[in-house]
Amino acid sequence: MHGVSGPLLEVSALTKTFGKVQALSGISLSVGEGEVVGLVGESGCGKTTLAKLALRLLMPNSGEVRYREKNIFRLQKETLRVFRREVQMVFQDPFGSLNPRMRIGEIIEEPLLVHHIGTSLERKKKVAELLESVGLKENHSRRYPHEFSGGERQRIGIARAIALSPKLLILDEPVSSLDLSIQTQILRLLLTLHRKKGIAYLLISHDLRVISKVSDRTLVMYLGKIVEEGKTSDIFSNPQHPYTRALIASQPQYIKEKKFSGIPKGEVPSPIDPPSGCRYRLRCPHAERRCADEEPLLLERQKSHSVACHFEL
Question: Counting beta carbons within 10 angstroms of the beta carbon of residue 135, is it exposed (0 to 12), middle (13 to 18) or buried (19 or more)?
């Protein structure tokens, strides 16, 4: 699976429905080697579904996910084993993702056992190193998950996720259940691990503040579609899509500045019956007849900055 020059992970025209619910509709994105990509959008827009598809925990209706240029839905035995080792997930709920009946040392050692890595002594040493790398102590390995705070449990989840030296971490709302000061600590830890180990991240969040602190590139998702994509600095300094502007305008630091306007009208439409044309049009201050008749394509407006909108704002 190595020695390939393309993106590490490439999602192409991915569509997923659950009965009548259109969770994802033609999503495309990529994550390069060692890159941090942020995916932001409101709850229910399809972010977690995308994460599960990228990990092959779900199968799509159509489209592809390629890891090192291989379609993950077609991987067999050994190549699937390599994929499972190299792509790991950090979950939103640090308690729900840890087995309450296992000691912390056993939880972190488990992926090493599954993949037959090291002797018992080597694994114990590795567990101690992993605990230290996430700011915990070796003697923590003998305790159970309920003996730790939420922030400590998320550190344990991260230690388990990096045990196999993955190339890509998919982080699904990794700090949303933590209070603000602990969020900052965990984000700092993720940045340190990224710098030291060169792990690529696909960071999924509804919180723009989190995305702005960590990601190189940001994608904005609305009702199962990507509506804007670009360098994180460009997205925040010069958002081009009305929805992105509204998201940024609702952030506390921007409310004072009144830098961007356009708080969305009404509620997010149902994914069972999304609007025709542009999915954002019912909430958009700029919407015209064309927006109902014609779906805007995600097109590059400026270098490495793409927008799905009929108008230049």
Answer: middle
128 or 177: which leads in pLDDT:
128
Token output for 68? 């090192």
Question: What is the spatial distance between Cα 125 and Cα 134, in angstroms, rounded to a whole number?
Answer: 15
With 0-12 / 13-18 / 19 or more C-beta atoms within 10 angstroms meaning exposed / middle / buried, residue 36 is buried
Q: What is the DSSP string of the chain?
A: --S--S-SEEEEEEEEEETTEEEEEEEEEEE-TT-EEEEE--TTSSHHHHHHHHTTSS--SEEEEEETTEEGGG--HHHHHHHHHHEEEE-S-TTTTS-TTS-HHHHHHHHHHHTT-S-HHHHHHHHHHHHHHTT--GGGGGS-GGGS-HHHHHHHHHHHHHTT--SEEEEESTTTTS-HHHHHHHHHHHHHHHHHH--EEEEEES-HHHHHHH-SEEEEEETTEEEEEEEHHHHHHS--SHHHHHHHHTSHHHHHHT-S--PPPSPPPPTTSPPSSSTTGGG-TT--HHHHHSPPP-EEEETTEEE--SS--
Bridge partners of 29, per DSSP, are: 11
Q: Is the pLDDT of residue 237 over 80?
A: yes
pLDDT, mean of residues 162-177: 93
